[in-house]
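Researcher: Quick one. two chains, 230 residues in total.
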Amino acid sequence: DTEVTQTPKHLVMGMTNKKSLKCEQHMGHRAMYWYKQKAKKPPELMFVYSYEKLSINESVPSRFSPECPNSSLLNLHLHALQPEDSALYLCASSPSAGRTYGYTFGSGTRLTVV
Amino acid sequence: AQTVTQSQPEMSVQEAETVTLSCTYDTSESDYYLFWYKQPPSRQMILVIRQEAYKQQNATENRFSVNFQKAAKSFSLKISDSQLGDAAMYFCAYRSAHNAGNMLTFGGGTRLMVKP
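Model:
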C-alpha cells in the first residue's frame, strides 16, 4: 500500500458544528502532516507529527485540534470554524527523519464552512 | 528561513513541445532536497522529480528533467513532448536535510496549460 487515504473527500459544515477529518497510511511512515491550501495558493503547513507526537504547530488557531492515535492514523478535529477556514486540507506522510525524504500526499478534503 | 520563488504564475505550451518552469530558492544550508510536485484538478499532490543537493548530476524521470544550478540556487523543470495530461499546477519545494520536522517549503506555483 503506497497511498495516503483521506476521508471525507468533501465536507460542508456550519460554524457551530464539530467534525473530524481522517488520514490513514500503511507505509510505515513515522512523520505525518496537515497542510491547508487555499485556491491557487501553495499548501501551508499546519501541524507535524513525528513518532505520534506533535512536533510542530504553526500557530494554528485552537479551533483546529490534531490527534495521532497511532502510527497509521492522523485526525484533525474541527470546532467552531469560520468561513475563512474553507479550504482544501491535505494530509501527507514521510519516513522518519534522516536522509529518506519521500513525501506522499493524500487527495485532500475539500472543506466548506457555511 | 528558506524561501522558494516561482516567477511564472502561468505558462502555456503546445502539445508535443518542450516547456521549462523556473524556480529559485534562498538558503544558507549546503545539504537539502528539492522537489517538483504536480497538482492536477483532482487535487492530489504528485511527486514529479526530486534532486539531492549533494548530487551534481541533474535528475531525470522520463519526459521530466531538471537543471539544478546550486551556486545560482536555481532549480528549473523541463517537460519534453508535453501531453494534455501534463496540464496542472506545478509547485517547486525545498526541504532541509537537517530539519527535524522534515517540512516542505513550497513556491507559489505555476499553472501549466497544454494546448492541443
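The radius of gyration of chain A is 13 Å.
Researcher: Thanks, that's what I needed.
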